[in-house]
Structures are given as C-alpha cells and as structure tokens.
Write a structure and sequence with these properties.
Distance between the termini: 56 Å
CATH superfamily of the largest domain: P-loop containing nucleotide triphosphate hydrolases
Order of helices and strands: HHEHEHEHEHEHEHHEHHHHHH
Helix content: 55-70%
Shape: elongated
Number of strands: 7
Mean pLDDT: 87
Number of domains: 3
Strand content: 5-15%
CATH topology of the largest domain: Rossmann fold
Strand order of the largest sheet: 2-3-4-1-5
Length: 329
C-alpha cells in the first residue's frame, strides 16, 4: 500500500505514448510528431480524467528522452492564470535555448480554460514571438473557454472518456499490483460514481482499499459518504407504494448516518429514476412527472426553502402520484 502523499494515480500513470490505451488516433498523430521531431502548438480538450495531461507528459518523455524534465515547463493555469505569469515566468522560459537535438522546448499549461481573458491575449502574442524556440500544449476541459485566436494557432485533439471495460481493466491491474481484493460490484460502483473520470476512479479505489482489505460495493459507498443506489431505489419504491412515513423515516436515517444534504438526495433520486434497474411498474408519463417534481423541489431549495418541508413535500407528492398511477392502471 502506498504511504504518505504518493498517490496511485501518479504511480500508475503511463510514462510513454505506447502505454496510453483507447486513444489510438490521438496517440498515432502524436507519435508522428515525435518521429519528425516537429510539434505544432497543441490544444488538448476533453472531460476530466481522460488522459490529457498524461498524453502531454508522455509526448515530452518520448520527444526528449532523459532530458524531458529540462526541456519541459508544466504549469497549472488555474493557480497561475494571471497576465503577470505570461509576461514573466512563461516569457523568460520561452527565451531559453533547449537542450538536446530537438530545437524547441515545451510549455504545458494545464487547465488553460481557467486563464483570464487578458492572460490569454498575452499568451497569444507570446506564442507568436517564440514559436521557433518554444511549443505550447494547452489543456482544457472546455474549448469554448479558450479564445478563438489561440484555438486557430493550435492543432486540436479531442479526448473521449475511457470505455467502461478499459477503465475496469486498469483498476483490476492496479488492485492486483497493490494486493487489494476488489469485487466486480465494487468496480461497477466505482465506474458509476467516477462518471468516466479514471483519475477519480483510481482515487476512490485507493481510499476504499485504505478502509478495508476487501473492496466491496458497500465499502465504496461508505468511503464516498453516499447511500447506495439500492437504498435510494428502496426509498422511491416505498414512497410510490404509498408508504410515505416509512419512506420518510428511512431517508432521514440515511441522511443523518451519511451526512447527506437534501440536494444530494435529489441528485441520487434523479439518477435512479432514469436507471433501468428501477422497476416501478409505472408508465413513462408518470416517470416524467416524478422527474419534473425533483427539478421543482431542487429549484425551491436553491431559492432558500426549508429542507425538511421540501423533503416531506417530495415524498408526499411521490405517494400521491403513485396512488393516481395505480388507480388509472
């Protein structure tokens, strides 16, 4: 088991482009840049945890070999996003001469979509002035937050979330190497809760492994501080069946045990109502009514309504809708 601040996400990060999986088209194009030792400015776009930063570091490693750290400056633009950083640190680094055979250095700007508009305008000019000695790799979750002049100067690479089985295989590989037992139900729960973010999935696995020797579905939800989807489905079924007080008491118990807010509960109910695993024997119109009700209650809470009153109103309305559905069936 890893100790201290060392994380599995860093320990099991791919080191070369050959180790990256399920991004074949992107890896193929990046390998051509390495082969020709000629890289344009790059813009990596995609959801969190899909390998954007890893791909940038692997490109640097394959391009410079053992000198990759000397020729690469990595900055997190969410921390250092002001115009002063562009005018000082980045510009000073861009002026320096690269080491080795490759005639340029790399500057990796992670979370570039968090940079201020002024900083992006300054960066655009810097990219023009030092294009011979420096290449930029900008990493962003949302391309729309990068100004058009910068986008037009970059080759854009769009990263897709990893498929479920590829993510599960990676988690199994990590668990095997760390001597952790993990069940298939736990892997499914981790995948659902990570929402395609492999970095988040690895962190959940590590946290669960630190809590118990065998990682099960129950352990995953315990470490996340959430009630399981099965428990949420039971509450919805009780309410729909007209057992309002029982549903309310059980939900209260879960909320106090896990420290949940009503908004957390609404999100989980919304997800489960759209899940194929929830069999309520209701028509699609009734299901749509329930989803619309959750949206209305969520709006009331955002506007400052009382949590307890809105929770009771939600379950009571579920019971009324369920009763109407049974009468018309």
């Amino acid at each position: 088991m890893l100790m201290g601040i060392e994380l599995w996400t860093e320990k099991y990060r791919p080191r070369t482009l050959d180790e990256i999986v399920n991004q074949e088209e992107i890896v193929s194009r990046l390998k051509e840049f390495v082969k020709e030792k000629n890289v344009p400015h790059l813009l990596f776009v995609g959801p969190p945890g899909t390998g954007k930063t890893t791909a940038a570091l692997c490109l640097a490693h394959d391009l410079y070999g053992e000198h990759w750290r000397d020729n690469t400056l990595e900055l997190n633009a969410s921390d250092e996003r002001g115009i002063d950083v562009i005018r000082t640190r980045i510009k000073d680094y861009a002026r320096t001469i690269p080491l080795g055979e490759v005639p340029f250095k790399l500057i990796i700007l992670d979370e570039a979509d968090n940079m201020t508009s002024d900083a992006q305008q300054a960066l655009r000019r810097t990219m023009e002035l030092f294009s011979r000695s420096t290449r930029f790799i900008l990493i962003a979750n949302y391309a729309s937050k990068i100004i058009e002049p910068i986008q037009s100067r970059c080759a854009v690479f769009r990263f897709q979330p990893l498929p479920k089985e590829a993510a599960k295989d990676r988690l199994r590989y990590i668990a095997q190497n760390e001597g952790v037992k993990v069940t298939e139900e736990a892997l499914e729960a981790i995948w659902v809760e990570s929402e395609g973010d492999l970095r988040k999935a690895i962190n959940i696995l590590q946290a669960a492994a630190a809590l118990r020797k065998e990682v099960t579905e129950e352990v995953v939800y315990e470490v996340l501080g959430k009630i399981s989807p099965k428990e949420v489905r039971e509450i919805i079924k009780l309410a729909i069946a007209g057992k309002f007080l029982e549903a309310r008491d059980r939900l209260r118990s879960y909320m106090y045990s896990y420290g949940l807010s009503v908004v957390d509960v609404l999100k989980m109910m919304h997800k489960e109502l759209l899940s194929a695993k929830l069999d309520l024997n209701i028509d699609e119109y009734t299901r749509a009514e329930l989803l619309d009700l959750i949206g209305e209650i969520n709006f009331r809470l955002v506007e400052g309504s009382d949590d307890e009153i809105q929770l009771n109103a939600l379950l009571a309305k579920f019971a009324l809708i369920g009763s109407k559905s049974r009468r018309t069936a």
